[in-house]
Amino acid sequence: MPAPLSQLRSPLPEPFERLRAAFHGFIRVECGLAKATLEAYDRDVRELLAFLAGRGRRTPAEVTPRDLAEHLAGLKKDRNLSAASITRHLATARVFFRWLTSTGVLANSPADFLDRPTRWKKLPGVLSPRQINALLSAPRPPTADPASPGRKQDPALAVLWMRDRAMLELMYASGLRASEVAGLRVRDYHETLGMVLVSGKGGKQRMVPVGAPARAAIADYLKHCRPILARASGTKDGGRLLLSRTGRPLERVAVWQLVKKNAAAAGLQGVHPHMLRHSFATHLLMGGADLRVVQELLGHADIATTQIYTHVDSARLRSVHRKFHPRA
């Protein structure tokens, strides 16, 4: 079974800890992975090593394919992780043990004997155009508090809705991840070109168009909101486009919270930032966009990753066919 939380928080045996630290340095320097990916790899490796330590293993040479198989089985049985999450854990184990063989620590990798779990074809959640409009319209100016009519309102609170609308419009208009929109700098937005320079996974950059409604929302934010937020932090905004109430750069977690908050205000349930990206891609394909173009806009290295959106559109077409065809 997976290592208990108490064991995961405990220090690893010294040989395992040295290997974990060295592996983390390798993937950080040599592989150029995104911060979130690095953190995921490190969590997975730490959890794997804690499991192996719990089975009495102290060196990689003692690890067997059965150890790894039981670790993966426990992730499903005891933690009910999805097939996609288990596949990620397997990929981490393979990369880790492949690194051990390349550095001469092991002669052969025990992870090479493991089969890849079947990944379920789970379609991404997509908002309809009507739901998207409701979400983008959710940020509104705050109303005066009737309980304290004479109370002076915080200037930052009065304009934060402009930031939220600019953020949501930009995420849908350009298909941005939460980490990508949070990491944008003012200089990355090119108003005259109607484009934004996005730094995606692994530091890969792409230029993505920004639609007219999003450009208008960003213009309002830059003129009426961001200067007020920036004054709150002095020079600590780092040149970021989107700022918090205190003028600091908006973090990825805050993007999640703001999307959920505005979705609730729009009467929508289960909405998360990636759903705007899914909707962006699906709506483009529904409108007749070429799959390769959508791949470039999303920054996918492999077109197979983009192809799932064709299944989403096919599901919609089947639904329409069943509803309206006389012999469906």
Account of the 3D structure:
The protein has 328 residues and is mainly alpha-helical. It has 14 helices and three strands. Strands 1-2-3 form a three-stranded antiparallel beta sheet.
Topology:
Layout (H helix, E strand, L loop, with lengths): L4 H5 L4 H16 L5 H20 L10 H13 L5 H20 L26 H8 L18 H20 L3 H6 L5 E2 L4 E5 L5 E5 L2 H22 L18 H14 L7 H14 L4 H8 L4 H4 L1 H17 L4
Antiparallel strand pairs: 1-2, 2-3
Helix pairs in contact: 2-3, 3-5, 4-5, 7-9, 7-11, 11-14
Considering the chains and any ligands shown, give keywords for the structure:
single chain; 328 residues; mainly alpha; three-stranded antiparallel sheet; 14 helices; globular; disordered N terminus
Distance between the termini: 48 Å
How much of the polypeptide forms β-strand, as a percent range? under 5%
Question: Structural class, judged by helices and strands?
Answer: mainly alpha
Largest sheet: 3 strands, antiparallel
Mean pLDDT: 85
Provide the low-confidence segments as ranges.
1-8
Helicity level, as a percent range? 55-70%
State the shape: globular
Q: Report the radius of gyration as a whole number of Å.
A: 24 Å
Strand order of the largest sheet: 1-2-3
Query: How many DSSP E strands?
Result: 3
Question: Number of DSSP helices?
Answer: 14
- What is the H/E order? HHHHHHHHEEEHHHHHH
